[in-house]
Amino acid sequence: MATATASPTAPDARLDRRRFVADLVARLPEDALVVTGLGSPSYDVCAAGDRPGTFYLWGAMGAAAPLALGVALAKPDRPVLAESSNPYAALRHVHRRREPPAPHGELRPSALCPTASAAVR
Amino acid sequence: MFTALKKHDIQQIAYVPDAGHPHAIREAQRDPAIHDVVLTTEEEGVAVVSGAWLGGQRAVLLMQSSGVGNCVNMFSLLQMGQFPSLALVTMRGEHAEFNPWQSPMGRTTQQALELMGITVLRADAPEDVGETVDAALESAFGAGERVAVLLGQKLIGRKKWGRD
């Protein structure tokens, strides 16, 4: 029968998430802005020591990455960190590209522009 | 509409590609003073415009009526943060609609927005669009309200099928 118990000879390779986040936050530049997704990301970042420039979400699931994108576009001179427990939701935004506008022709939904996720495979 | 966006210093627009807003999208893409943010789903746009406000910029969200339903829980963010916001919503499921799948959300778009604490304005005639959007921008960024403008399906005209 399969069990979840680690082999006694294998090292425990589990990530200590709270410690990882604390280390990450400690390494952030002083002017960094931080957005945290609801639940554990907010708890972890707060536990690492509350700092100015942090926006904690405690709902609005899926908001962390796009909210951070809005902040980053508005504040191009500040580093912005989004911490999310949903890596897919986070990744589909960060590869946003700005395409030049089509020079001529009617705009159609399918031809309007690539979506942000088009760059993520 | 785009004139009103410029007048009110809108610096980000977030949208899912949609034939209902071609002029505003095209102008925003051409304008170096506006970031156009392409979304994979409308709810992301609610977060983008919230982030823009936190970062000190004004942003507007463009979507079709069907997208309003995708945003319902994300609208919590606008209430909890008390973020000023404007959504411009092109309507489907009403005038000369040929696709029945557009009707359930089209019929309930206004109520869905209002249930989530958003004030709804509406324009059905071309000559009303500029003034209505301008007034909505004033309510949003002057008075700090959460506002949506529904752009009636008559404005968009009958959809014609064609090859891309």
TrEMBL record, chain B:
Coiled-coil parts of chain: none
The keyword Lyase belongs to this UniProt entry's keyword annotation: yes
Molecular functions per Gene Ontology: carboxy-lyase activity; magnesium ion binding
Keyword Chloroplast part of the UniProt annotation: no
Keywords: Decarboxylase, Lyase, Pyruvate
Protein name: Probable sulfopyruvate decarboxylase alpha subunit
Organism of this sequence: Streptomyces himastatinicus ATCC 53653
